[in-house]
From TrEMBL:
Residue span(s) of domain Helicase ATP-binding: 46-309
Family matches, as InterPro entries: ATP-dep_Helicase_C, Helicase/UvrB_N, Helicase_ATP-bd, P-loop_NTPase
GO molecular function, one term: ATP binding
Source organism per UniProt: Pseudonocardia kunmingensis
Gene Ontology biological-process annotations: nucleobase-containing compound metabolic process
A Pfam family recorded for this sequence: ResIII
Name assigned to this protein: Type III restriction/modification enzyme restriction subunit
């Protein structure tokens, strides 16, 4: 006999809405119960926060965020709130999410046209790029498609989505595009006035040189700009197709950067309202493990700051795998990075004592590097090197079994390497921004807390690649003094998530006992972690047991002001926009950040009061010399020699470093930045300035401050200066003969273009040797001639 199941049970069955109930009712779920942490998060969302429009959920890496996001999406479908979309950072991870949903027994769709998605019967799993672009299938404001109404958007790896958002709202015009030459010609005079040297560098193909088109020139020449750009937009040019529809309405407000790669046009904040499906979604849920500063959710995605004030987290932060994190240079400053690279290779072969014979289990060693140049340092040691394009195959190979030492270039997030896929992780440098506007901001806020927080986020993202659940383990090595400082200095440590910070502090206890032990001590500690030494495992679990998440969101006041000011300006209320930024300026204590925000205010102020805008720039440049120069120029600062060099050095070092270890790491970090790398010339010049301060000299960067003169100037005595031209971005022997004017003029005016008497100058010109493999510097004796001969 066949039973009629429609007559059994409730006569009018109700769809389950509570996420835990949905999971319990799944017939083929792979686990009997949700993890405790997942259950806590879901109950908090359902019982307290599900009616809030913007919700941030923070769980440790490997804490089961994907399952949480899928159950929230299914709950929204069952409640009848509307269509649900789960957004992953890329297509590879979107496929992984669909696989996870299939294991749970949840229905998913891959395309927005899928009838099941449109009928609210399946969760659409796609990428952030699919939703946010100028040709979005979800609809664009003012476009021909009817926007798709959404009930919930679940944004996985929210930090990655934020970077995508910035790129989608940026119009990039390549250097070989006809519009590049036309725009460059239109603003040539303005660019030269702003920074002649940078313009020359751009013309010579220097990839590090960037210069901003002055906002007044951009605003005043909008008719010519539209005449140049509009024909390409109408023709649906490939360079314009996806960005132009998103930024055209606020073109006059955009920041415009010129580099040797092209011209970038980008609004101060993404006009996210151009994507109606995003801004009208009734629920937006952001999943993240490492987003310590939630401000970017406000500036980039217009999230409600009031909603972000409270974060949903599990009750305990102990749901993290076992990690030992060591910075070799912190243990022994005399250890070279090359020796540590050799150690990593030996561990991949099973040679843990370094005697050349494998006596232990070989492990997969994964190395994260920020660039191809850094990857080259591992070329002779790597078994594989993978870039973003072929990363999926590399990850699959690692998950299948032993590979050896694998280098991943510029991929610090979005990959899972559980278990034996990665047991020793090496982080060799932090990725630097590639977009011209981001590079300029990084240079302007070089030592600011904002830049430090962003670097910590990238470090933590990288460290999370090898630990994917609470039972996993991974040893981590951090190369270089900069990363060593990040895990030593309290101002850096406090920016890590609570669980990671607890592991770093436990690792520091290990490091103290290994201090000056050399490579043998590091080998012993790594083996202890890899072989799951019971004493180590116990201490590791005890360190995490009492750790709790911080459930208070961090949203900086200037971020809220920047978002609100942009929205006002986009609505034509530029004067009110300037007033809103002034409210933030009044409470900013960091001079570099204050100057940066003043520049933004000046940009809005120009539309109603150009003279006041220039005065605001004058105030901005006094706080931050990296901002735009006002049209009236900048008064020179009299460089003064310290009365007692040793005392000046002692005062600077005492104010900068909390202890002797931090001092050693800090000095080494300065020296590490002075390298021959055409991608890091600004870091090299900034490091040289710091080196002068370390030595007790008044140290400055005239070329950055006044857009003329040498790269660096040290005031040695009341009658002597040292002038430096760093050629760290050049590899040709002829580099020293390329640009002589800055040195000559600097010798005459001591590096400041106004109000500075002529002084003798010690001229030092640093150029790479023919082979470009190491530095050399030659310095002539101090001379009094204001027009010296060519330096050698």
């Amino acid at each position: 006999m066949t039973l009629d199941w429609t007559k059994i049970g409730s006569s009018s069955p109700q769809l389950l809405v509570r996420p835990r109930d949905i999971f319990a009712a799944l017939p083929n779920k792979p686990w009997s119960y949700l993890r405790q942490e997942q259950g806590e998060v879901l109950e908090d969302w359902f019982g307290r926060r599900r009616d809030d429009r913007d919700v941030v959920i923070k769980q440790n890496t490997g804490g089961g965020k994907t399952v949480v996001g899928l159950l929230i999406a299914q709950s929204t479908i069952n409640e009848g709130i509307g269509k649900t979309v789960y957004l992953a950072p890329d297509t590879y991870l979107a496929a992984r999410v669909r696989d996870e949903a299939a294991r749970l027994g949840l229905q998913t769709a891959e395309q927005p046209e899928d009838p099941r998605f449109l009928a609210e019967q399946a969760i659409l799993v796609t990428t952030f790029q699919k939703l946010i672009n100028g040709q979005s299938v979800f609809g664009v404001a003012g476009g021909y498609r009817t926007p798709i109404d959404l009930g919930v958007l679940v944004v996985d790896d929210a930090h990655a989505a934020l970077a995508t958002t910035e790129g989608q709202f940026r119009l990039t015009i390549p250097v070989d595009h006809p519009a590049f030459a036309a725009l460059f010609g239109l603003f040539d005079g303005d660019l030269v006035k702003e920074n002649r040297k940078a313009c020359l560098d751009i013309e010579h193909g220097d990839s590090t040189a960037v210069v901003r088109v002055p906002f007044w020139a951009w605003a005043d020449k909008q008719k010519q700009v539209w005449d140049i750009l509009q024909p390409h937009a109408v023709a649906r040019d490939d360079a314009f197709k996806f960005a132009w529809p998103l930024i055209a309405d606020c073109l006059s407000l955009c920041t415009v950067m010129v580099s040797s790669r092209g011209i970038e046009i980008q609004p101060p904040c993404p006009p996210i309202g151009k994507i109606p499906s995003f801004v009208t979604a009734r629920r937006r849920v952001y999943l993240t493990a490492t987003l310590s500063d939630d401000s970017v959710l406000v500036t980039n995605l217009k999230a409600d700051p009031a909603n972000l004030a409270q974060v949903i987290t599990p009750g305990s932060a102990a749901d993290l795998g076992d990690r030992l994190v060591l910075a070799p240079v912190q243990l022994n400053p005399s250890l070279g990075d090359d020796a540590v690279r050799q150690l990593a290779k030996q561990f991949s072969l099973g040679d843990r004592d370094g005697d050349g014979r494998p006596e232990s289990r070989p492990v997969n060693v994964v190395v994260l590097v920020p660039s191809a140049a850094q990857a080259n340092l591992w070329r002779d040691l790597a078994d594989r090197t993978y870039y973003v394009g072929d990363l999926e195959a590399g990850v699959a190979e690692l998950r299948r079994g032993h590979v050896g030492l694998v280098v991943l270039v510029n991929k610090y997030d979005g990959i899972d390497l559980p278990g034996t896929a990665c047991e020793l992780l090496v982080i060799d440098g932090i990725p630097r921004p590639m977009a011209a506007a981001a590079r300029r901001e990084a240079a302007a806020l070089l030592d600011s807390p904002i830049r430090r927080a962003r670097d910590v986020q990238r470090i933590e993202q990288g460290m999370g690649r090898g630990v994917r659940d609470v039972n996993d383990h991974c040893a981590v090595l951090l190369l270089g003094a900069g990363l060593g400082m990040a895990v030593h200095d309290r101002t850096w440590l406090d920016l890590f998530s609570p669980a990671t910070r607890a592991q770093l502090e436990l690792s520091r206890d290990v490091a103290i006992q290994l201090y000056e032990a050399g490579l043998d001590g590091i080998r012993s500690a790594l083996s202890m972690c890899l072989e799951r030494d019971p004493q180590w495992v116990q201490r590791s679990k005890l360190a995490l047991a009492p750790v709790r998440y911080n459930n208070t969101g961090v949203v900086r006041p200037e971020a809220i002001a920047a978002r609100e000011a942009f929205d006002l300006a986009a609505a034509g209320q530029t004067s009110l926009a300037a007033d809103r930024l002034q409210q933030a300026i009044n409470v900013i204590t960091d001079p570099a950040l204050r100057g940066w925000v003043r520049e933004q205010k000046a940009g809005y102020l120009h539309f109603t009061d150009p003279n006041a805008a220039q005065q605001q720039l004058g105030a901005a440049i006094r706080d931050n010399p990296m901002v735009l120069r006002p049209t009236v120029g900048v008064d020179g600062r009299q460089a003064r020699a310290a009365a007692v060099q040793a005392r000046a050095a002692a005062e600077y070092l005492g104010a900068t470093y909390p202890d002797s270890t931090a001092l050693v790491l800090g000095v080494r970090a300065v020296l590490d930045d002075i390298v021959w790398d055409n991608g890091r010339t600004n870091e090299a010049e900034a490091a040289w300035q710091k080196l002068g301060l370390h030595l007790g000299f008044d140290s400055m960067r005239p070329e950055q401050l006044y857009r003329t003169g040498p790269d660096n100037l040290w005031t040695l005595t009341p009658i002597q200066n040292a002038v430096f031209e760093l050629k760290t971005g050049w590899t040709r022997p002829a580099a020293a003969s390329r640009r002589r004017t800055p040195i000559s003029s600097a010798a005459a005016c001591s590096g400041t273009p106004r109000r500075t008497p002529t002084r003798p100058a010690c001229r030092s010109w640093c150029t790479p040797p023919t082979c470009s493999t190491r530095r050399r510097s030659r310095c002539r004796a101090c001379v009094s001639s204001p027009r010296p001969s060519s330096p050698t």
